[in-house]
Amino acid sequence: MLHASLWQQSGDMTQRLLGHPFVRGLADGTLDRDVFRRYVAQDAFFLRAFLKAYALAAAKCDDFERACVFHDLMTGVLAELKLHGSYSATLGIDLDDVEPYTATTAYTDFLLRVAWHGSLAEIIAAMVPCMRVYQHLGHELAASLRPDHPYEQWIKTYAGDDFGQLCARLESLLDEIASNSPAVHDAYRYAMQCELDFFSAPMENTP
Amino acid sequence: MKLQMIEQSPLVLGAGELWPDATSGDFLSAIRDGNLPSEAFQRWLVQDYAFAKGLAAFQAVAVAKTPRPAQKVLIAGLSALDAELDWFEQNAQRQELDLNAATHPTCRRYVDYLVASAYTQPFEVLLPILFGVEASYLCAWSALEASGPYAEYIERWSNSLFVDYVAELLGICDHDPDEIQQRQFNEVLRHERDFWCMTWEG
Q1: How far apart are CA A160 and CA A176, in angstroms?
Q2: Which of A26, A27, A128, B54 sits at a 20 to 30 Å CA gap from A196?
């Protein structure tokens, strides 16, 4: 299975993600609230680009059933954006007025370049890491949950079955459509790097 | 005269300190002084080739979106870019450089930005973006005297034909840039600045 092989080949980055101070802080609940606030704002900006990339992937599908899968994945992104909307009220963020960090625009420019200019296989390869990383983090961090955990909602969202099923459907599409070409491998690997940089940025960019 | 017009254009003046940041740096100073390590120059050639291929993709989409007569300037520029890619390939063969070497993340970010913009921005914004790419490159090289071990290269990217092309690009940009045009022009300069730093630092 291509999706499993690509994930396995990214084991070094997965380990770096799990040991990342942002992720460790999310797990034990010690993540600074301001850092989380900045992360949510950047993630909302990112998700709007992610939504567009799904739409462009759907437009590039010859197969109607596959296009419908992208529709479902878009619904999932909209649900995530709703979650961010609920955070924004309590965290005091205006999600319509986010100044993206360099790491954020690097990721969204990459996604949009691939989505507009690349093949369907490359688009999926560029999008799977985001889904798989979050599913993996949710699953791993679920063990850290305790009563009154400050990031319980975030962890439960990505540890949940709904999110896991969306991730699995996208990975199935990758297996059906893509081959292990250099372009696919490169898109997947670069997206993993973008994920790492994305978690670092809110800790480095202080107001 | 044309070079002065380019450097005094509203977009350049509106960029403030980003302009000198994007048109100077340690890499260019070392070329001027003739003491740039050959590996730094070769690294730059390989990354600049990757960039030029990305620019060709940007410009091809921009050609399709730009109405005539401005489109003629872009088509001529695209043809010149094709010749430029040939030159890079011949040069790389002579120097035994691998043009398929990994693209540096800084170069990659610049190309991703350009190609994504080509599809998502209207032609009125793409023109200042292209002007920013070419004007900063021209002015960076034009500040150097065409002498020393890199004279051929300095001459190549500061000659009168290139000046004419960049002046034509300026001529098809809006004379009074709006906020979005200026913001995207500035974004190009940030990428240019980072690109020069990358070629110097490796």
Answers
A1: 25
A2: B54
